[in-house]
Amino acid sequence: MSRDICIYQEFLTGVHRAKIESAAAQAGFVPHFFAPDQFEEARECLQRCEVLYAHSPDLLRTAPASLKWYCCSYAGVDPYCKDPSVFANPDCMLTNSNSYGVTIAEHVVMVTLMLLRRMPEYGAIVRDREWSNQLPIRSIRDNEFTLLGTGNIGINVAERLRGMGAAQIIGLSRSGRAVPGFDAVSPISRLDEILPSVKILIMSLPGTPETVHILNRDRIALLPRDAYVINVGRGTAIEQKPLIEALNSGRLAGAALDVMDPEPLPPDHPLWEAKNLILTPHVSGNMTLGYTCDVNVEMFCTDLLRYGRGEPLKNLVDRTRGY
Amino acid sequence: MSRDICIYQEFLTGVHRAKIESAAAQAGFVPHFFAPDQFEEARECLQRCEVLYAHSPDLLRTAPASLKWYCCSYAGVDPYCKDPSVFANPDCMLTNSNSYGVTIAEHVVMVTLMLLRRMPEYGAIVRDREWSNQLPIRSIRDNEFTLLGTGNIGINVAERLRGMGAAQIIGLSRSGRAVPGFDAVSPISRLDEILPSVKILIMSLPGTPETVHILNRDRIALLPRDAYVINVGRGTAIEQKPLIEALNSGRLAGAALDVMDPEPLPPDHPLWEAKNLILTPHVSGNMTLGYTCDVNVEMFCTDLLRYGRGEPLKNLVDRTRGY
């Protein structure tokens, strides 16, 4: 009897399929591929599968209690941890895919430079067809960075900032454990002490109950006037109303948000018009970069081989902790 | 009798003045400082000076034949080389100030990422308050770069691209001499051979008769459809009309111009409206970054000490060659 894998993904190329087929054969599995418009076919096949590789809570909800492993091709698995009822099998293993480090880090370097080099203002000058070029700018070189989140994204960001001459890179994480590439890592419990000396705050936290509004009104008030805030984690991590007020009043130098709350942002939301804000519609870490897709498939195949051998999965998520 | 230096600069801080005073004293000189609104006072003082540190063809034109050294605080000295009549003394030494490598390289990294990550299009999406995030993007990692110009700017750009995982960095220079940080450097005479395989072309050439329209209509036609062009050297290096046509017709993926011809760009110029073009009003390398100013003063002081000892100047420009 065959052991089956249901694969419901939009980004797979022929090369990706071949890689998955080869890993599946080696692990003793048969893969079944479905495109985004084949939800019904995928649902039907899923009923006899023990593994699902997708990023669809809707499809997962239709899975039988015999599903043993759900490999989510996203990094953020908060929708699956907040609501355990999406799993018919309470012991179903959940893995996530941290394949977004490089693309998100490149996004962070881009918006960091755009903020330091006053691109929101220069963008307006150019739109008005004016010629003015004397705004004081700042540099990554010799600058100091505070990274709230020291996971895969934080490590990739730190590496790039260091390569461009950053003088100091401080990390903040739940544990405060040392991480290569950081000058120091503190526990998040020390956040209030650290905020008053922040120059550029880069947030890449997962969406968990502890991270909701972690940058709240009081903490935004602790930031220096010339600080910049960048968020590529979850929109819920920032209390948006006081952030907008701080930007519009000049109490904060600028911000770049790739994530917000809610998404999509409604057309009448005040974030669209906030001053010195670079908004992007959650583009930093999706599957639009080939490299990201390659790594994603590689991570699934590595864990599939481990699964076949009965070894612990590398990208296993603690479903109660949320990451 | 004192030997005098006329200094006419807008960017000097107290620390900079103190550094210059100390170097001048050591070299046996007396410095005289003038702000931008003191042109007349500077002109008067200049009559008895043997050194001028400024970036003003107008002031230089008023200098006596006894001026021995003009230290220009800009990197681009084409206005002084094209028109030798700005020097009353035909043997006056000219030095330039390549203090802009870091700030221009950061600009290049920024616009490279903005092009690869489709920011002109995402900017328009956000301005329309729409939510769309599936444009295919590209990465610096594993990508290939062609740098037309391997001087101070090119070297700083190459270093940063390499730090972000660039797979291949090819340089093009007049001599084709090997430069550290480049995988290969070819003479510019091979440009036509190289253009058809360009992915991202980064131009940082000085303004000389040979570089005018070096990227002309025929050469723009040699570029692949998915190529990007970045120019931070001189606007005259690109034939603008065919570039605009190529951008608007989709014959070229995009461009980022910090320099153009003429500057300021007239309000009715078609460049303002070209598709997938990131325009900045010559901001990449001016004196708005503290680090640039620090290096600029340091370069002047180093050469001042050499000048005092009668040694050859480090940043001497060949006035006939233009750089």
Task: Summarize this structure briefly.
The structure is a homodimer of 323-residue chains. Chain A is an alpha/beta fold and 323 residues long.
Low-confidence stretches of chain A: none
Helix content of chain A: 25-40%
Please, what is the average pLDDT of chain A? 96
Second CATH tier, the architecture of the largest domain in chain A: 3-Layer(aba) Sandwich
Strand content of chain A: 15-25%
Q: Can you count the beta strands of chain A?
A: 12
Q: What are the secondary-structure elements of chain A, in order, as H or E?
A: EHEHEHEHEHHEHEEHEHEHEEH
CATH fold naming of the largest domain in chain A: Rossmann fold
Q: Give the chain pair forming the largest contact, with residue counts.
A: A-B, 48 and 49 residues
Number of helices of chain A: 11
CATH superfamily of the largest domain in chain A: NAD(P)-binding Rossmann-like Domain
What shape does the CA trace of chain A take? elongated
Separation of termini of chain A? 34 Å
Structural class of chain A: alpha/beta
Could you describe the largest sheet of chain A, including whether it forms a barrel? 7 strands, parallel
Main sheet: strand order of chain A: 8-7-6-9-10-11-12
What is the oligomer described by this structure?
homodimer
Instruction: Domain count of chain A, please report it.
Output: 2
CATH domain class of the largest domain in chain A: Alpha Beta
Rounded to the nearest angstrom, the radius of gyration of chain A is 22 Å
